[in-house]
Amino acid sequence: MAVKTIVPALAIWMGAALAQAAQIGPDSFGYVARDVPYSFTNIAATGASTLGSLDDAYAIVNIGFTFNFYGAPYTIALPTTNGLVAFVGPNLASQNQDLTGPLAPDAPVIAPLWDDYTLRSDTVGHIYYQTVGAVGSREFIVQWDNIKPFDLTVDADRVTFQMRLFEGSNNILFSYLDTDTSLPDSSGNGASNGRSATVGIRDLSGNTNGRNLQWSFNQKLISSESSILFELSGQEVPEPGTILLTGLGLAAVMLGRRRLAGRN
């Protein structure tokens, strides 16, 4: 009976442990990232529009509060047409880059879905930004809305996603309404579900100081109606294999204790 009792409990515990394995990090500063329930605050009807009819361009916008990113305070953000937000200086690279390697230019960046998009000669796609909420718990949102990949040969489907910065907690949330472009995985840019994009965060010189946390780079891992949260944590997230072994070890200890108790 003891074994029958522990198996369901073990299955539940292991399921929770394996769900935690979806987390990555921490990086050297302490950021971790994890899947969270989907949440999308649509600002298409209320946000200010920027970068209309431009390509490989950036805007300079007020966050509306002081946002702390890798220990530095920022009140200004520089969103680009290519699914990227930079600080200090713009990053106009149309070709997405690996956040764990050298960046050109090197600037602190937040990359919800860094790929080559364009608003040139486009009346459908928009980039909106807005600060919402009450003082102390405000959110700064940048939304890439119905934007199209830059592809001169194929009329790709459009994507919609957003970045949200949270006052106080300094958390960062990426939310993806639609990441299906209809382009094949072999596409140089604009492939569906992040196959040709970079997703993550990075500080200045992040390749040498370890201040980078990359969720994916040219990997088909970003599904529609999903969200990823980046936050600071004082606890290290175990690797999936470590979690699994720890779970099995704990189960063995529990089972051994039950057997000993049955003999007494």
Describe the protein.
- The structure is a single chain.
- With 264 residues, the protein is an alpha+beta fold.
- It is 18% helix and 33% strand.
- The protein has helices at 2-20, 206-209, 240-263, and strands at 31-36, 48-50, 61-69, 72-79, 85-86, 109-114, 117-118, 126-132, 139-149, 159-166, 172-178, 198-202, 212-217, 226-232.
- A hairpin with a 5-residue loop joins strand 4 and strand 5.
- It is globular and about 45 Å long.
- The model is unreliable at 1-21 and 235-264 (pLDDT under 50).
What's the tally of helices? 3
- The class by helix and strand makeup works out as alpha+beta
**Morphology:** globular
Q: What is the end-to-end distance?
A: 16 Å
* Mean pLDDT over the full residue set: 85
User: How many β-strand runs?
Assistant: 14
The major pleated sheet works out as: 8 strands, antiparallel
Secondary structure: helix percent: 10-25%
How many structural domains can be distinguished in the coordinates?
A: 2
Radius of gyration: 21 Å
Spell the H/E element sequence: HEEEEEEEEEEEEHEEH
Q: Percent of residues in beta strands?
A: 25-35%
Which consecutive residue ranges, at least 5 long each, have pLDDT under 50?
Answer: 1-21, 235-264
